[in-house]
Design a protein that fits this description.
alpha/beta; 4 helices; eFR1_2_sf; ERF1 domain 2
Length: 134
C-alpha cells in the first residue's frame, strides 16, 4: 500500500512513525540504543555541555520515511530539531520533504494520526492538493 504522508513524533529515547493516506495507516516505533537517558544541558557532563544526539538512531528514523512524499516532525523537546539537522546534513532529499516541525507533547498514536491528518489537510489546501479527511 502506498502512503504519501508520514508523521514522526520523536524524543531522545524513541520515535513513533505513522505512515498514512486518506484510508489507511501503519505505524512503527524506533528506539535509541544510546545509554544516555536524556541529553539536556549538564546531563552527566563534567563540562556542562549538552550530550550529543544518537546519530545512528536519527539515521534509523530518517530511513523509515524514505518512501514518504511529505513528512511532519513533531515532539516535546529538541529531538525534532536534531532530526531535522541530521536530515539536512546527511539526506537533503528527506529534508526537502519535511513540511513542518511542531511542538507536540506525548499523544497516543491515534491522537498523533488525527493531528497529522488535520495538519496535512491545511498544507494540502494551501498547495491546492487533495485534502485528507477521516
Amino acid at each position: 500500500m502506498s502512503f504519501n504522508h508520514s508523521v514522526i513524533w520523536i524524543d531522545h529515547q524513541e520515535a513513533h512513525v505513522i505512515y498514512f493516506n486518506p484510508t489507511a495507516s501503519e505505524s512503527e516505533v524506533i528506539k535509541t540504543r544510546s545509554t544516555h537517558k536524556n541529553v539536556h544541558h549538564k546531563s552527566g557532563s563534567v563540562s556542562g555541555a549538552r550530550a550529543e544526539p544518537d546519530q545512528h538512531y536519527l539515521h534509523e528514523v530518517i530511513q523509515a520515511v524514505m518512501e514518504s512524499k511529505e513528512i511532519l516532525i513533531v515532539g516535546p523537546g529538541s529531538a525534532k530539531l536534531d532530526l531535522m539537522k541530521h536530515a539536512t546534513k546527511h539526506d537533503h532529499g528527506i529534508a526537502e520533504k519535511v513540511v513542518g516541525i511542531e511542538t507536540v507533547d506525548h499523544p497516543s498514536d491515534g491522537q498523533l494520526l488525527a493531528y497529522a491528518k488535520k495538519y496535512f489537510a491545511k498544507v494540502d489546501a494551501l498547495k491546492g492538493d487533495t485534502i485528507i479527511t477521516g
